[in-house]
Amino acid sequence: MDFRSNLSASNSIIKKAQSFPGVLAGIAAAETLKQAPSYRARSSVEWKTGAMFETHESIPWPEDAKSVLVLVYGHPSGEPELDWWDGKGTEGNRVLMRVAEQMRQWFESTLHAKADPLPYHVENGGVFLKDAAVLAGLGVIGRNNLLVTPELGPRVRLRALFLSLELVPTGPIDWFSPCEGCPSLCWKACPQKAFDTGAYSRMDCILQMEENRANVKKIDQNKQDGRAVEVVSYCRACELACPAGHWEERPVTRYSAKT
Ligand code: B12
Predict the structure, then answer these.
(1) How far apart are CA 8 and CA 163, in angstroms?
(2) Which of 31, 37, 139, 203 is deepest in the core (most CB within 10 A)?
(3) Is residue 32 part of a domain?
(4) Alpha-carbon distance 199 to 255, whole Å?
(5) CA 109 to ligand 1 centroid distance, Å
């Protein structure tokens, strides 16, 4: 595929992905993602069922995985239910999975190439989504250790697909520095003081998650029969404290492939 058609393919993929309400999208090169910081980091933190991602390197990516399409869905502070874990997943994640599947069908029928919606967990064959999003130009990593987007700050959730086409990446960006001049509100907000050493402590954060799971919340989720449903509302203190992004707005189309 020559450069011009490659560029126009990137643009039409982004345009299609962003036609879904509330979705932003970007493209990263799979080769570049393999070198990203999370792939270089080592950890074997135990958490109930065992190491959370120590096996991630043992799952080889498919050879035809050339690009990664990253999907971003806003979880504004005013829609907390998108983030509630109901035992099977969260509503926000289900939205992203539906969009990923529709993108797969569109990609295969329109561009006649392969698209693979990826699992969420790296140890099941997924990718490190924050790194992929940064490389795709969707934001930067903030002091809260999260992807911070210009549109919604860190209040977003991510999914990705492998694409079998080599495409022009849409990032990274160099014009967005949300933490500059901020008195680290995210660090101060953490109930476990997980940033007290000046870096994110995964172990402290996990303790908070365990506490959240022990405190399920009852809500009338099923509006038809009014049945109470139990959900876990995981801590979001470090994202909700972040002043970056336009809190009330749903994102607008911003991205196009670089020339
Ligand atoms: C395992 C996991 C957890 C674990 C461990 C987290 C951890 N960071 O280690 C636990 C359960 C504790 C957890 C907690 C949370 N998580 Co979590 N988690 C994941 C998961 C599945 C993998 C993350 C991982 O293991 N990373 C590897 C470790 C080694 O690296 P890391 O700590 O993330 O730090 C790396 C990056 O910051 C990167 N990096 C740093 N600087 C730079 C610069 C550049 C240029 C690049 C490219 C990369 C980069 O390198 C670091 C490693 O060196 C991802 C989904 C996925 N498939 O990616 C979601 C994910 C990261 N989690 C998410 C969220 C929202 C949360 C929570 C807010 C809880 C919640 N309510 O959902 C907290 C926030 C924690 C925090 N402040 O980091 C979102 C993040 C969205 C965002 N805006 O960034 C993700 C992407 C899932 C999603 N649904 O979209 N999580």
Answers:
(1) 15
(2) 139
(3) yes
(4) 31
(5) 33
Domain span including residue 72: 3-178
Reply yes or no on whether the pLDDT at 155 is more than 80.
yes
* Number of folded domains that form the chain: 2
C-beta separation of 130 from 122 below 8 A = no
Which of 191, 193, 182 minimizes the C-alpha distance to 153?
A: 182
Using a pLDDT cut of 90, give the percent of the chain over it.
73
Q: Which atom of ligand 1 is nearest to the CA of 132?
A: 47
Please write the tens of the pLDDT for every residue from 32-85: 999 999 988 855 544 544 445 444 455 789 999 999 999 999 999 889 999 999
Report the predicted TM-score, pTM, of the whole model to 2 decimal places: 0.93
Task: Assess whether 130 and 196 both reside in one domain.
Answer: no
Q: Quick check: is 244 in a domain? A: no
Within this chain, do residues 56 and 172 fall inside the same structural domain, yes or no? yes
The whole-number pLDDT of residue 49 equals 46
For residue 259, what pLDDT is reported?
34
- Atom 9 in ligand 1: which residue has the minimum CA distance? 202
What is the arithmetic mean of pLDDT over 219-235? 75
Q: What pLDDT, on the 0 to 100 scale, is given for residue 216? A: 86
Is the same domain home to 94 and 216? Answer: no
1/14 Cα distance (integer angstroms) = 18
Residue count of the chain: 259
Residue bearing tokens 């940033």: 195
Q: How far is the CA of 129 from the centre of ligand 1 (A)?
A: 8
